């Protein structure tokens, strides 16, 4: 098994919808922690994490799609004065990977998150897709849709959906 | 991360339905290989695999439920003269784990596989459930049901469903 190519794990990550909550949503952050603790463990050289953040069009005026970030320096060298929340989100995960010592890449796309994630799976062919999920009940799901259910059906690779812990659910469970 | 408790992965495994095909179904065997290659990798001490085989009642006259097997010796010491196919199935996976050097346990239960798997998840609280899937289309699924879809919805832990590779699909895709 030594010398085999690293297991490439694509993670769909998004920003928190809670006002004042910094950067990563509770479910994205939980999915990352779970992946590090339960899958990567001490075997940091065996894995590469790929972070994909999909921004819904017209939510932010953002024109830095399709750039690739692989180290904290990549962010510092950026010309942009206004680092958007999306960039901060990716920076958060890239920084955490560098602290832990696991290789990573991060990028952004625009579009419908569930469609874009499945499209990117087809393009980059990861070994595994990890998505966070709010763990909503059927009634709440009707209104917000769930990216994780769509990806489990349509993504062309194995998918793990990590539900948010019950004790981390905010007052309005649709928030994240 | 060193010294942390091993990640416990529960695998639902079943026998092949193909006449003359030895022991493990194509999808169970594929899910095992995937888990070793992509998740466990060289970090054999970081993981413990738990194999659960659910036998549908009245399919076999089998009375050795609830026994626990953790090494090849456990099988040799058995009093039973007729090793059933179910036992051979578990023996296959336990032997493979011992060759690889990863800790394991295996046991059998009777019942409806999807219900029993979710019940056992609640009881043993694994970190992850891995199930193989035939990757059937919607038309075929109506007739055979899918354990993996049910578990993804109902199991109280993260679930990965590993689809059978297209080039391993037997003549009748409902076979496995």
From TrEMBL, chains A, B:
<dbReference type="InterPro" id="IPR006016">
    <property type="entry name" value="UspA"/>
</dbReference>
<dbReference type="InterPro" id="IPR006015">
    <property type="entry name" value="Universal_stress_UspA"/>
</dbReference>
<dbReference type="GO" id="GO:0016208">
    <property type="term" value="F:AMP binding"/>
</dbReference>
<feature type="domain" description="UspA">
    <location>
        <begin position="28"/>
        <end position="161"/>
    </location>
</feature>
<protein>
    <submittedName>
        <fullName>Universal stress protein A-like protein isoform X1</fullName>
    </submittedName>
</protein>
<dbReference type="InterPro" id="IPR044187">
    <property type="entry name" value="At3g01520-like_plant"/>
</dbReference>
<dbReference type="InterPro" id="IPR014729">
    <property type="entry name" value="Rossmann-like_a/b/a_fold"/>
</dbReference>
<dbReference type="Pfam" id="PF00582">
    <property type="entry name" value="Usp"/>
</dbReference>
